[in-house]
Amino acid sequence: MSGDPSDVEGDGGDDPSPFSSMTEIFEREFPYFLAYGMTPDQYWYEDPTLTRAYLKKYELEQDYANTVAWLQGAYVYEAIMDLIPAMRPMGASKPTPYRSEPIKLFEDKGTKKSDEQKQQELNKARMEAWAGKINQKIQN
Amino acid sequence: MNKRLTIEYKDKKYTLEFTRDSIRQMEADGFDINGAQDNKMPVSTIMGLWEGAFICHHPDVSKETKEELFDSLGDKEKLLEALTTMYSVPIESLTKEPKTKNAKWTGNW
Questions:
Q1: Which chain A positions have a beta carbon within 8 Å of B23's beta carbon?
Q2: Which of B32, B34, B69, B83 is the least crowded, having the fewest Cβ atoms under 10 Å away?
Q3: Does residue A25 belong to the interface with chain B, where contact is any CB pair within 8 Å?
Q4: What is the rounded CA–CA span in Å between residue A114 and residue A107?
Q5: Digit-coded pLDDT (tens) for A12-46
Q6: What is the pTM of this model?
Q7: Residues of B in contact with A45 (CB under 8 A)
């Protein structure tokens, strides 16, 4: 795949002939940028720096595809693990049901408590427990 | 964002810029940036670069007007530097943004 600095500058690798004109490089790179989603007009006539945005976009898309593939792998793995109890040759038991809802990718803002809030709640519970013990001692 | 140069001359505004297409046209007309050697650029290359910068926004400006404009501008060295920088954008932007250098500096105050 092109769009790599070493491809444009020529690193003396597979291609023995250096480029003879910029047009040659532009034409060589053109199909790659079409694949990245650029239109011919954008590539030839518009702001030439748009190519950088499309390179970044391509990277983000690859990253996304990679995450999706990873997630799918995680579901398959989990499903196999759930089935294992049913596949034991001796003493097979019921398989663990498949998860009822998808893995949460993002935490709900409403339910997420800050560390400070959690600490405050913990302190309150400790105080209540301590007060309870004291009261018990007094009553006894 | 592409690098542009604007010139105002005789109540007219000119925007100079290179796109891949304008460079393709320049090269088809015989322009060769490799004509510049040892940091010296032949007059024909300088003028080719100058005239090519009009292709994008002012393709109909005559050769005479372009020359007149060129003659009217001062600090040709800086102008040439700006033109070569502009000319390199379409090729440089085919690659990723160069990473910033990792050098660090510290002061003694």
A1: 22-23, 26
A2: B34
A3: yes
A4: 12
A5: 445 545 677 999 999 999 999 999 999 999 999 99
A6: 0.70
A7: 19-21
